[in-house]
């Protein structure tokens, strides 16, 4: 596929709608419906599982199966305790960052609808500057304008209600996408664009392609574990985000070097099957797609691990999207990186042969 702009006005509108919809871990259904509606013209069929993972399939009758995968959930909070004076205390649902919480507006999801609140914090004038207490999971709290526990409960708020940030999608300096939940709603977007391009370019794959938008990655790769057992694929290409390490206070000697705008990041890790990874890097070189490399230790920390070690072993690889400010409400990615991840997955699929074993012994 010749290098050209991939993201269209239609796909950008889908991305904005998809990102702005809340889909916290365990409550991904609304976002999955938006995702499936967009994909409907480009695939042959869909199926979902009990917990909400959505799968779009191209060529479903094929016996050889390849997965491309992202995850659909976003980090959030749960109401954990309601004080007598109407304040809410929280626990994490996924890796929510307590340090960014103070002064943030939140949406509390109830059966009666959204209840607005704010993470309050003592004014600077009232704090002991010699011994300031930092935000911690056990001292941050939400104020919804109530003065009693009974008043809170009348609004439909109870222990177990999930809480998200409403921060909406926007673009900085024409090419930088900013929003909460780019980790990893961008993955769902990118694999959907791969399906669109295959359809529009009339490409026929010699295998079944399973476009998987997994749930519950943020609490331990749970959705991928379940769906890998159901699909039983022969190979899986997973996409997630990784840290841009060029911003302040990140140790490159520890985290490695990765820069937004310099291309997708191909992972080197025990869970990454080397011959599938080599197919991806050789594809990038052949089609002049810029890419970076990352070395990961015992685990990738992504759904790659779940697919790789399922079903007696599945050839799996990880292509990551460089991202700044992970698990904040201002996560940032570069448009060219997004397009190059899409291009790299697309071209790699076209290089996979029917029945390929990726064996070292063939």
Number of helices: 9
Could you tell me the strand content as a percent range?
25-35%
Global structural class: alpha+beta
Uncertain segments of ≥5 residues (pLDDT<50)? none
CATH topology-level name of the largest domain: Aminopeptidase
Give the distance, in angstroms, between the N- and C-terminal Cα atoms: 30 Å
Topology:
Blueprint: H1 9-20, H2 29-39, E1 45-48, E2 54-58, E3 65-71, E4 76-82, E5 87-93, E6 105-110, E7 113-120, E8 141-143, H3 149-154, E9 162-164, E10 170-172, E11 176-179, H4 182-200, E12 208-214, H5 222-231, E13 235-243, H6 252-255, E14 265-268, H7 274-286, E15 292-295, H8 303-308, E16 315-323, E17 331-334, H9 335-351
Parallel strand pairs: 3-12, 3-13, 13-16, 14-15
Antiparallel strand pairs: 1-2, 2-12, 4-5, 4-9, 5-8, 6-7, 6-9, 7-8, 10-11, 11-17, 14-16
Task: Considering the chains and any ligands shown, give keywords for the structure.
Elongation Factor Tu (Ef-tu), domain 3; eight-stranded mixed sheet; six-stranded antiparallel β-barrel; 362 residues; Aminopeptidase; 27% helix; alpha+beta; globular; 9 helices
Could you give a short description of this structure?
By secondary structure, this protein is of the alpha+beta class. It has helices at 9-20, 29-39, 149-154, 182-200, 222-231, 252-255, 274-286, 303-308, 335-351, and strands at 45-48, 54-58, 65-71, 76-82, 87-93, 105-110, 113-120, 141-143, 162-164, 170-172, 176-179, 208-214, 235-243, 265-268, 292-295, 315-323, 331-334.
